[in-house]
Amino acid sequence: MKTMDLLPPRETMYRALVNRDSSFEGIFYVGVRTTGIFCRPTCTAKKPARENVNFFGTLSEALHNGYRPCLRCQPMDPNGHPPELIERLRAEVERAPGGRLTDKELAAMSIDPSTARRQFKRHYGMTFQAYHRARRIGVALRDVRRGARVDEAKNGSGFESDSGFRDAFTKIFGETPTAAKTQAGLFAQRIDTPLGAMLAVADDKGLRLLEFVDRRAMERELSILRKRLRTNVVPGEHRHLDAVRLQLTDYFSGKSLAFDLPLAPVGSPFQLRAWELLCSIPVGQTRSYSWMAKKLGDVEMRRAVGRANGENMICIIIPCHRVIRADGTLCGYGGGLWRKKWLLDHERKMLRG
Ligand SMILES: [Zn+2]
Q1: What are the chain's domains?
Q2: Catalytic: which of 70, 73, 315, 320?
Q3: DSSP letter for each residue of 182-212
């Protein structure tokens, strides 16, 4: 799995792009901000200006950043053309990137849902649902970054159909962009990290969520927050979001591995106790599920502990990645095992250095 810091330097990639250098095929993809499309390095389309490009190491990153695959160079298809069924499915997604296609709807289009799933997975290594989710989240979060207000986000993504953006936005944040603006409760921002884009959500009480945007649970977690706190989420600025952004930068650069900001996770009394216990595990160290269960009062609770860790909504800062099997092997991380391994390696390396 490629992380953002393993990409070649920006200048090298831009040169490869201008020269249509085929030796960079599969090394990076390029997203063009003005069109919302992503391409291979060798695409024959007119080359975009330097300031309008974003580089990505994986298809998933490009999709989660709101870009759709170029129809000319077909960056997702090694042979230049997707099979017919996949082409149809992708076209359906583009008609309503904010929606969700149910098995029933697929069947109504005379598409057998299980064939669709199998083909998509075999061809792209991701399920059809994962693809659709990536487009939905990408479109909704495209401009949810520092300083971009909701109305600007809407205008900034002018190349997306207005309704596509609105639908996707509503699915993720629970309100239309206009309604969200008038009754802000929780503030959200996207933060780019070497492990991929994350979404951070905070209010005056503290940080409520920090999650990788490609994680399947993210949409569910946002809806739990909205329901439990009886308010909505709106892209915006907040001092706790500034703090988490700065501290994450320090964490990833190794300048400081410690976090110091108010956390306000939402969960059951048991979850809150489990998460508090996680925070007591020192940087660079690991503990087992049995250790946690024992500390929480019952060695037989390993399963419940595992579940509570998986339901942690404040990744990295509440360090569920520091819990591993008793035999030392890694297991179960919502953000993906490669991230868990990366975080543990990073912490050990930085402590030694
Ligand atoms: Zn292209």
Answers
A1: 4-138 (3.40.10.10), 269-352 (1.10.10.10)
A2: 320
A3: HS--EEEEEEEETTEEEEEEEETTEEEEEEE
